[in-house]
């Protein structure tokens, strides 16, 4: 393995007292992170490509939920394609791709984080409108408005991810054996920058969206309990599974963020500071790798949700699972929500039980 001893041109260095916030700060977590990312790449790339293909090639009419799932699969697929760079980084334990790629790759990772949680939030809000305000769903939750909202969301996502583009550079560092190497790590020169970046990530990319999601599902469940049908429909379970899965895999990452922020409030010679620094430095690679898993988990969830269609429809099962999301068009034309044109996901949704006309007829996916 090549270990440079001098600083190459155009690659900035930072002072030796800067925080060691690199993915290769610990040998064990680095090896485990590389293993996890390798599996993520093998599962996530074909899985998300299959979802995109199923929606674009197999589904004639796209509903709001289908459109959101398409965007989520595209975002996750791009992130999965980038994991190969991080696998090489963790395996070699030195950054070989240069400073521009260091900035761009981590910027795209942050973009995916925000895009994923915001798309999941939009799914939850859409379900909230469809269930709680079924008569308003065609006015405020149609695909034309959804496209405008998603375009605005992507613009906001690229803007919010700028800190990861600014506060990251390649620098020379020493590994645990004292050998020199290159790391792609944040270049925070002040404690205030650390507090700002990681607090901003956790609050805007986790806490606030999840507050909206939880509120939406509380209202959905409250509405369902008011009907004579007590069982939750499967579409709610599927989207809820996406929400929970994302939370499980991203929660450790944000906990590490907050531990690092907390450490910055203590003096550098404080024993508490040393303990907190050791925790986040030794855990950063693993928690980051776990966060990547959320982007390859959704194809697995869809497969389990549509397993009853696999034997009958083969590779078209995903389209069969999602085709019922065209109910918004069917409802708009005044079709009977229980007619043949409303099969697909609505059959999956009902779990063998008929739902109320209000919920069934305006269930847009």
UniProtKB/TrEMBL annotation:
It is a multi-pass membrane protein. It comes from the Eukaryota. Keywords: Cell membrane, Disulfide bond, G-protein coupled receptor, Glycoprotein, Membrane, Phosphoprotein, Receptor, Transducer, Transmembrane, Transmembrane helix. One of its GO terms (cellular component) is plasma membrane. It is found in: Cell membrane. GO terms for biological process: inflammatory response; phospholipase C-activating G protein-coupled receptor signaling pathway; positive regulation of cytosolic calcium ion concentration. Pfam families: 7tm_1. This is G-protein coupled receptors family 1 profile domain-containing protein. It comes from Mugilogobius chulae.
């Amino acid at each position: 393995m090549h270990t440079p001893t001098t600083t190459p041109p155009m690659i900035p260095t930072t002072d030796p007292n800067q925080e060691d916030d690199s993915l290769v700060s610990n040998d064990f977590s680095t090896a485990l992170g590389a293993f996890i990312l390798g599996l993520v790449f093998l599962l996530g790339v074909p899985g998300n490509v299959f979802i995109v293909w199923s929606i674009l090639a197999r589904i004639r009419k796209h509903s709001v939920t289908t459109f959101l799932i398409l965007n989520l699969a595209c975002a996750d697929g791009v992130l999965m394609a980038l994991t190969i760079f991080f696998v090489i980084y963790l395996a070699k334990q030195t950054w070989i791709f240069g400073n521009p790629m260091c900035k761009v790759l981590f910027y795209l990772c942050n973009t995916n984080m925000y895009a994923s949680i915001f798309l999941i939030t939009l799914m939850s809000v859409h379900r909230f409108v469809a269930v709680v305000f079924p008569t308003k769903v065609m006015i405020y939750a149609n695909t034309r408005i959804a496209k405008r909202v998603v375009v605005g969301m992507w613009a906001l996502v690229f803007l919010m991810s700028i800190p990861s583009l600014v506060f990251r550079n390649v620098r020379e560092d020493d590994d645990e054996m004292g050998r020199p190497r290159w790391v792609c790590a944040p270049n925070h020169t002040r404690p205030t920058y650390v507090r700002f970046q990681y607090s901003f990530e956790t609050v805007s990319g986790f806490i606030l969206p999840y507050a909206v999601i939880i509120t939406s599902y509380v209202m959905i469940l409250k509405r369902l309990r008011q009907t004579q049908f007590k069982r939750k429909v499967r579409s709610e379970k599927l989207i809820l599974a996406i929400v929970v899965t994302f939370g499980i895999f991203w929660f450790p990452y944000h906990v590490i963020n907050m531990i690092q922020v907390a450490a910055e409030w203590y003096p550098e010679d404080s024993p508490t500071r040393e303990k907190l620094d050791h925790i986040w430095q030794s855990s950063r690679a693993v928690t980051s790798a776990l966060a990547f898993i959320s982007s390859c988990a959704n194809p697995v969830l869809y497969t389990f949700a549509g397993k009853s269609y696999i034997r009958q429809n083969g590779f078209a099962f995903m389209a069969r699972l999602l085709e019922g999301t065209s109910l918004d068009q069917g409802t708009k034309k005044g079709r009977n929500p229980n007619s043949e044109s409303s099969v697909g996901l609505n059959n999956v949704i009902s779990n063998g039980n008929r739902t109320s006309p209000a919920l069934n007829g305006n269930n847009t996916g």
